[in-house]
Amino acid sequence: MSEQQPGRFERGTDGPKVIMAGVDGSESSLRAAAYAAGLARRQNALLALVYVQPVLAAGAALGAPTVGTTDEIAEDLVAEIRTSAERVKDLWRMRWEFHTFRGDAYTGLVQAAEELTADAVVVGASESAGHRFVGSVAVRLVKAGRWPVTVVP
């Protein structure tokens, strides 16, 4: 039997406390959020919904508006989530939070999971054909091996 180091975070002892889902407005990410909501409800865990605002340096260099666009996406996502939560509030009693991070999706989700001390991460499967060659965010999260990762189709 090993001793636990003082002050060290221990995962998985009493069930998940924080279930994190990455959302970006895509159909697969919204399915992932719904799946994560069901898990969080059954486990009486906090549902942390995370949107990672991409940093579009190339677009900004060309004069394209970037922050306003991603801020609007975040606002639309949280409005949609609030509407959904309001519809089921009498059936599902659950705690949830919405967080926004900046950066590329993988780095932002890793940062979010670390800061929120996520016990599990739920993401949607990539809808981009290019990820077959480069690797999707979901695959990179699984390979990181830091949390249980569920990929929802």
TrEMBL record:
Domain UspA, first and last residues per copy: 17-153
SUPFAM superfamilies given in the database record: Adenine nucleotide alpha hydrolases-like (SSF52402)
Family: Belongs to the universal stress protein A family.
Name of the protein: UspA domain-containing protein
Native source organism of the sequence: Streptomyces venezuelae (strain ATCC 10712 / CBS 650.69 / DSM 40230 / JCM 4526 / NBRC 13096 / PD 04745)
